[in-house]
Request: fold
Amino acid sequence: MVQALQAIDRLADIAGAYGAVFCDVWGVVHDGVAQNPPAVAALAEARRGGAQVILLTNSPRPAEGVREQLDALGVPRDAYDAIVTSGDATRALISASSRRVFHIGTTRNEDLFDGLNLELLEPEQADLVVATGLFDDEAETPDDYAALLDRIAARDLPMICANPDIVVHRGERLIYCAGAIAKVYAERGQVVHLAGKPHPPIYDVARSLLPKGDVPILCIGDGMFTDVKGANTLGADCLFISDGIHRDALAEAGDDPARLAEALAREGLTARFVQPFLR
Reply:
């Protein structure tokens, strides 16, 4: 039986039932180009109502780098209490691994490695691969990485993926993320470690920031396989943002909660609430 999905008008209609809100960033709070003012206002209102708002993002950068990006987009700091990133969780995985690293991703993501005392090397000298994204996500696709991944796989190097997302919207464009590279590498039979949503490490970090004891948590996000699946694994209620990364795939369902619930159920997922965008 498909679990009913309740359409809500405003986050404020339900926020009072939760002690904590774990909210996705890219696709909910902003689209990589501009902030979503109704979402920012809704989160600030939830905080004023007593909920602890933690922004939970699969960004491969440490929290401070994401905070600077939000500042640049004009997102006020009173809209959230803390930021937890896939990068934060990834740093713990790297610290427990080799210091000889080959990095797949842009140089702007190298702040992930600050203070970890690593050597950034070529694949033939490295013992570990860390993927934070594509070298040029404006021009490349995972197909451009076939030869490089073959070289890495020939050495059986384990990979840590700092961002499990496959794609995100940057404005109206779809941009490939590190998860797309990790997926191709795993298909070669190689070991891939994932720290971001929907996997437990990022939620463990976020929950460590909450008061001790049971705190009702509401997870908000637009990613079925990251935000919704992560909420289901955590055992938390989920507010699904339907006009996000899956908006084209869900176009036939429109704003019909029953049809959206069926789409989630086909993937083995459930959510309790739905909005087209956070407000």
